[in-house]
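Is 1-deoxymannojirimycin placement plausible here? Inputs below.
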Amino acid sequence: MAADDTIYSECTAAEPLLAPRPTLGSRLKRRWYRADRLGRAAIVLLALMMCAALAVRILVEVTGPRDRWPGPPATIPPGADDSPESDEERRLAVRAAMKHAWSGYRKYAFGKDELRPVSNGSNNKWGGWGVTLIDALDTLHIMELHAEFKEAVTHVTGVDFSKATDGYTTPFFEMVIRCLGGLLSAYEMSLDPRLLEKAQQVGDVLMPAFGTSTGIPYPRVDVNAGRAVPSDRVCIAEAGTVQLEYWKLSELTGDPSYHAAAQRVVDILDRAHKPYPGLYPIWVDIASGNLTSGQITFGGMGDSWYEYMLKQYIYSRRSTAQYRRMYEESIDAMTARMVQRSIYDENMYYVGDLDATATKFSPRFQHLTCFVPGMLALGSRVLDRPADLELAKQLTYTCFQMYNLTSTGLSPEYVQFRDSKDRGISPDEAEADFTTVALGAASSKEERDGFYLGPNRSYILRPETIESLMVLYRVTGDLKYKEWGWQIFRAIEAWTKTPAAYSAYRDVTSTAGRSQLTDSMESFFLAETLKYLYLLFSPADYYSLDEYVFNTEAHPFRIMRSPRP
Ligand code: DMJ
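Reply from A.M.:
I modeled the complex. Tokens:
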């Protein structure tokens, strides 16, 4: 986990490009001490003018139009307003949200990695390939925003993927799931050969990652130099969540070498020693292929490794016995050792983390882990495992409550539970082991809620709960999943919308509104969050789960036409 308590799904987060700047206060102070009398008078005048500007701004905030910045309560009772009720109206509302986010990106950040949705600036924090534009391509297509799609494709055809920002080293996993995945799926939808060409270019410039003695990939690639950046270790989600994309690339280009390189990684990890069958500590030693240390988690750094066992089984038309065996073993182990029930709310189940020996339990449930119910529901259908569907429903309830119980209706990055008495591990012991969060004094409301909030209370526009709601609805047909999804969408609209797009929110328990916006919009908001919402309100045969498998960044891939070409 990152030191600042942010949970990344990758072990190698995007690098910050800017060093922190001195604050205005500290700069003024420095000038004050250096200034003569006249200079000090000028500083006083400047300070007065700034106060006046601030006063005017507060006045505008209070009296000005209120519909464009966050503020209205997220939980308006049904029927108490003009909230759309039909699926079609809701689908159009989500489409309008996508149009809004896209047009802000187009206006202020076109071709850049990300829009800064509060300041209307941009960044190239992923090396400058235009990650938001690529990640959003298939969402534009799915929502039939054809003019926008066309313009974006024209731009992509001019991107030179053999170059990145000077000195930047590209994170292998992130660019595979966002860019390679995004281009492949946009190609399958449009059949525009230029997109396949570009996908292959991305696949090729990232291939040096596999050039290690074992074939376990390095986590970063220096694309400008055409080589990978040596490293001792890589996390299992990074090493094991590139297989679907490289397999699809092999299928579409007819070149089996991509799939072969990616499959080798799985074969090594499948054979590696584990503390408990099916459970994989997150760190992989690249030179030996051993699973060395770290937590065992279905959250950040472990998550999509498990997801891809099932998804490759589905993608291969159920022809890969290896993936079925690995998936079933992991889910059985997770269910037996990592699932707990809240001791304050018996309806609330969660998946905690284990230490590397698979013996010590941490009662923390990450937002990232909320993809698990969707995976379980999908797996229950494909593999006929009815108990998994029951667990999926229970976990979805908890994931929804992580939104429903906060004052904004947005979810924090994770919640913290008291450990179940059944396991005989006291919360304090579990805490002391490796959780960084102090439980603090319990308030009665929190006890009623069943969980506590840790210090990181941000919502960064993540998709996992909505992804699970979409799958749960399609598998069960239960309408409550649509209602829950709509409630979450309304909270997103209420608290994160800016004039340009949508922004991450710092503290989901604060109703301060605008001051909580962090000026960041990750590309997965367009790639995943809005796409899954749109599909939740679309007919179930639109991008049907029988025809498509979604990569971990929500890019739909057509299931192979015949098993294992
Ligand atoms: C996405 O980039 C992918 O879904 C990844 O697998 C984990 N989570 C982030 C979004 O939260």
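Short version: Residues 160-294 form a domain with the Glycosyltransferase fold (CATH 1.50.10.20).
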